[in-house]
Design brief:
CATH architecture of the largest domain: 3-Layer(aba) Sandwich
Radius of gyration: 18 Å
Strand content: 15-25%
Order of helices and strands: EHEHEEEHEEHEEHEEHEHEHEH
Strand order of the largest sheet: 5-4-3-2-1-12-13-14
Structural class: alpha/beta
Number of domains: 2
Mean pLDDT: 96
């Protein structure tokens, strides 16, 4: 069995707190012969937290399925071409979006765009020297996907202009995520199974939010965390407890993995 875990709201909370029961549950699941993967919308450059990686996952699916690692090696990496990335940034600038370009090794953003922004400050604090400026690296970005703050009155026109390149996740009226067409957390599961010679039916996914929808729909068994959205609860095979109430452990226990 291959088990896939979202990070934010599933493994840890907004303060990066990981319950000890989650760590122990994942370790015990591996000891019982199953493989455990992170499956996140974050780019790989934003998955570096020592405590998180110290759990010892077998692999990481990052950037909504655009990059896959297994046993410490990159086995799949779909980058946005230079031509498309320049066109993207120029279009976003035209519509007054403020992008964060997300890649395997670096994030690219203009720091001044996100001063005082809760998420932007978190990015700047956690990324350190892996954060680069968009202008200073013009055209030389290595990216899988991107996110942005946007102007609500201009979003539709911008999305239409780039509709041949991206699918969109609208998180709030002013925050969006842009993923290359044909990629999501669900395609990440399929690609892992293809590369490892596994059956998708033999997978379980844990998630909590709308950007986990495709992952939960694709997996053989879908486990939603407590406090998940109503839409996610409807597609789940099981809704477990909140993460801080041993939700991971109880979900693994429910399906006899520990």
């Amino acid at each position: 069995m291959i088990i896939f875990f979202d990070i934010d709201g599933t493994i840890w909370d907004w303060k990066n707190f990981i319950p000890e029961s989650a760590k122990k549950g994942i370790k015990k699941t591996q000891e019982n012969g199953h493989k455990c993967f992170i499956n996140t919308g974050r780019s790989r450059s934003f998955v570096t937290h020592e405590e998180l990686l110290g759990i010892g996952f077998d692999g990481i699916v990052s950037s909504c399925g655009c990059m896959i690692e297994y046993d410490g090696k990159t086995i799949f990496n779909r980058l946005i071409s230079k031509e498309d990335s320049i066109r993207t940034v120029e279009t976003l600038n035209k519509y007054e979006f403020k992008p964060i370009l997300e890649g395997p090794s670096h994030l690219y953003m203009e720091r001044e765009d996100y001063i005082g922004d809760l998420y932007g400050e978190k990015v700047m604090r956690e990324m350190g020297d892996r954060l680069r400026g968009i202008k200073e690296c013009w055209g030389n970005w290595e990216i899988n996907k991107l996110s942005a703050t946007c102007k609500p009155e201009k979003s539709k026109a911008c999305f239409e202009e780039l509709s041949d390149l991206y699918d969109y996740m609208i998180h709030t009226e002013t925050i969006c995520e842009m993923v290359p067409k044909g990629f999501n957390k669900g395609t990440g599961i399929r690609k892992v199974c293809e590369l490892l010679g596994a059956d998708v039916k033999d997978t379980i996914a844990f998630g909590d939010s709308i950007n986990d929808k495709e992952m939960l729909e694709e997996a053989g068994t879908a486990v939603a965390m407590g406090r998940c959205s109503d839409e996610i609860a409807k597609i789940a095979d099981f809704v477990t407890a909140n993460l801080e109430d041993d939700g991971i452990w109880k979900g693994l226990e429910k399906f006899n993995l520990i």
